[in-house]
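Work Package 3 (structural annotation) set out to generate three-dimensional models for the target panel prioritized at the project kickoff. During this period the team completed the workflow that converts sequence records into discrete structure tokens, so that structures can be stored uniformly alongside our sequence database. As a representative example, we reproduce one entry of 338 residues exactly as it appears in the project archive.
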Amino acid sequence: MDKSPIILGIESSCDDTSAAVLQGQKVLSNIVANQSIHKKYGGVVPELASRAHQQNIIPVVDIAIKKAKIRKRDINAIAYTQGPGLLGSLLVGGSFAKAFSLAMNIPLINVNHMKGHVLSHFIDDNQKMPNFPFLCLTVSGGHTQIVKVINHLEMEIIGQTIDDAAGEAFDKSAKILGIDYPGGPLIDKYSKDGNINTFKFNKPKVSGLDFSFSGLKTSILYKINNELQKDKNFIKNNFNDLCASIQHSIISILLEKIELAILNTGIKEIAIAGGVSANSYLRDELTKLSQINNFNLYIPKFEYCTDNAAMIAISGFYEYINNNFTSYDTVSSARLIF
């Protein structure tokens, strides 16, 4: 009989309400409730997100516990996302976790959302796990980072965006093209029928391992607006090529920086995480790069790329076995850093 601790994870940093139950590193359930209301606004509306979390949190947790086939009293600890994220959304998850911890008299564990993405690689779900130390390219709608991972608890950001994130560059570009939110996955889809070399955009010049995407977004906007003045059907006539060229421009920046990070650190264990790690072009190009440069590449399953509570629960597991618990006066933080 498995004696590993059972951890309930709660994730509510943005617009997905998620609850997961893990026993040790094994996922017993991982439930995610999406919020479709944001599509008509072209992006996440924080107030609407927090209200939806309030509606979803109890049903989602209930389903997660039932699907895991456990009782509430079997849970050894509850882990929740403290930040970073939308403050109103974080408060819903944090408040529920504190109330559950008090009611069940079990430890409370606060988790950094970005560390959760990194540690999703250690979920025991027939996926290959990286060896320490490794580099993790963590890319999402709100963050772009290169993290040096020493062990399950010790991590260091060695490169990060100085302005916008890669995921935001995808979504803003999609909006320019008239694609519904979230646009990143749709750019990935349409780019498969396009030519990556049709259009060139100005790349930012940022030294070291840091990133910048604001200039690229501006270059894309100006290029398309200029062409639309000449031909009102420019986007329609060049749609797939625009998607492919934009995606190539964003991904090539990520690839250049991870190559530099490997060169600077000598580390050849490379992982990716975050919502953008689901991008097929990034996965394919990194796989090619790993074969050329002879490094080990770790790509998470799709369900662990986007925001999910399993990554919070696995982070909680490592905190639990190291007796790292938090107090009830710990506050949620929209800009929580490592």
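The chain has ten helices and ten strands.
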